[in-house]
Amino acid sequence: LVKLGIDDDLVLKTLQELLNSKYSFSCLEAARSLANLDKGSKEVINTLVKLLTDNDCNIRISAVYTLGDLKKDSDTVVNALIKVIADENSEVRKGSAYALSNLAKDSDKVANALVKLLSDEDSEVRSRTAYALGDLGKKFNKISSVIEQWVKVNQDAENIGDVIDGLWDMVATE
Predict the structure, then answer these.
(1) Alpha-carbon distances of 4 from 70, 71, 141, rounded to whole Å
(2) Is the model's pTM score more than 0.85?
(3) Per-residue model confidence (pLDDT) at position 34
(4) Contact residues for 98 (Cβ-Cβ < 8 A; gap 6+)
């Protein structure tokens, strides 16, 4: 119904009721549908944040990317995304870097959390994190000092190339 552009009260009411479903997938799809309708209410955000701890990694992955796409910045969202940086699933960790960079939060807390992912075992997570830091560095000057400090400490790290690419992305003009 969302794809058809239907935005009537019955559809909205039904989707809002599904946010409280006992089935994670139903909650997720309702939240994503409401987000697509630009109805990113506090209830939708809270449902997505709750789904970040679901047992099913596919639910967590979808929730983290949906939060990033919503770009609704709040301490609750930022804190939840920082927690999933330690998720066992690499796609969730990569999604948290994406989402945090989309929120464009100027925060030492965000920068320091993302820097931890530069040492992730998964090269895609490291790469996405470097680019996320690069994106944030274009907006906030203090991000570059956090990355510079990481480079000084980790000069011999195998993923230093990804970080340098992220630094280059910060200074390169588009």
Answers:
(1) 20, 23, 43
(2) no
(3) 74
(4) 64, 65, 68, 128, 132
